[in-house]
Amino acid sequence: MELQDKRVLLTGASGGIGKEVAKALEAKGAKLLLVARNSNKLEALKDSLEFPHQHEILVADLSTDGGLEKVKQTCLNLSQKGQRIDVLINNAGSNQFSFLAQRTTASIELEIRLNLLVPMLLSQSALSWISRPGIILNVGSTFGSIGFPGYTTYCAAKSGLQRFSEALDRELDGSGIRTLYLAPRATDTSLNDHLVNQMNQKLGNKSDSPTIVAEHVIDILEKEQAARWIGWPEKIFARINQILPTVVSNSIRKQQDTIHHFINQVHGK
Ligand SMILES: NC(=O)c1ccc[n+]([C@@H]2O[C@H](COP(=O)([O-])OP(=O)(O)OC[C@H]3O[C@@H](n4cnc5c(N)ncnc54)[C@H](OP(=O)(O)O)[C@@H]3O)[C@@H](O)[C@H]2O)c1
């Protein structure tokens, strides 16, 4: 899709990746509807853009029914004014690095909700307000393809998001709406606290700057590529894990002590 003058709804806009995606989309001539919970951060982001008056903010807690309804009504209103959203980017997400045994039911539910159920419900909602041609882009993770200790719930959610994206793209084949999936690897944002960053360093896991992810967002939208994994060797591991999961299990087993050391620190042990 050519992004010039397209209207893009970006969730998680004020986060590390969201901010860079917003800048990159603006540079391509897109008009943005920036969504997150914290209005000050959204205002600051909007003001930091080159043409703030071309963009809107929408304060909504997407983990609530009210937040989702607010997005829907806003998009339907825009649609009635002839300002349909052309692209929905489901980017809001969160995770907790923790043993499953230590997680509360509420925290598991919230993580599944924000990373999986919310993109599904926003995609469903979008069917009534998105342009045709239109694009839904779901931001997943390498952890959607590789089960990793300490991220059981997040892996489950992002894995579900990948399959959801694939199924919806096939379901909507010929409708004018594409559903794409982008899986970043570790990225330098506040999603990862200092212990996770230390662990990644120790394990030799590379971390991208959010600007790299933003470049991929632009590219996948322009090419309308169904799915993309960012980074070597992660994209190869994702494939190997599908065909030969034991190889990946053996590799992670060698890292087990390091991983447990850092999870235990999270739990204050
Ligand atoms: N960073 C990484 O290592 C990494 C790697 C792979 C994939 N990803 C994925 O990339 C996406 C962006 O991550 P990030 O690193 O940019 O995270 P981040 O810096 O923590 O930003 C998260 C964004 O989501 C918003 N958000 C959180 N809860 C929300 C809620 N209930 N309702 C509405 N908005 C909410 C936050 O704003 P408010 O708090 O103001 O609501 C913020 O704008 C996520 O889907 C993440 O899973 C990240």
TrEMBL record:
<protein>
    <submittedName>
        <fullName>SDR family oxidoreductase</fullName>
    </submittedName>
</protein>
<comment type="similarity">
    <text>Belongs to the short-chain dehydrogenases/reductases (SDR) family.</text>
</comment>
<dbReference type="InterPro" id="IPR036291">
    <property type="entry name" value="NAD(P)-bd_dom_sf"/>
</dbReference>
<keyword id="KW-0560">Oxidoreductase</keyword>
<dbReference type="GO" id="GO:0016020">
    <property type="term" value="C:membrane"/>
</dbReference>
<dbReference type="GO" id="GO:0016491">
    <property type="term" value="F:oxidoreductase activity"/>
</dbReference>
<dbReference type="InterPro" id="IPR002347">
    <property type="entry name" value="SDR_fam"/>
</dbReference>
<dbReference type="Pfam" id="PF00106">
    <property type="entry name" value="adh_short"/>
</dbReference>
